[in-house]
Amino acid sequence: RESGSSVRGRSRISKVGNRKLRNMVFLAALSACTYNKACKALFDRIVAKGKSKKLALIAVANKLLKQAFAIAKSGLPYDENFVSKLA
């Protein structure tokens, strides 16, 4: 990302990378919106702002990836009620 925002505008979602992996994460986000309360809340919040459902699903996929990396890094099991110490 660039430090200034007036010259280049907003950054776009990139489609660079492994297509199959990206598709699997997208499908996982679709399922998470049904079964994961936090993901469903994020999805509903973004759609309520007037954004598209596809963009909201991509945001959920990003959240899932961040959760997966945090779990792998910390070594702790997944806890649905976990609250970050930074929050």
Automatic annotation (TrEMBL):
One of its GO terms (molecular function) is transposase activity. It comes from Vibrio marinisediminis. GO terms for biological process: DNA transposition. Coiled coil: none annotated. This is Transposase. Pfam families: Transposase_20 (PF02371). Signal peptide: none annotated. Residues 1-41 form the Transposase IS116/IS110/IS902 C-terminal domain. It comes from the Bacteria.
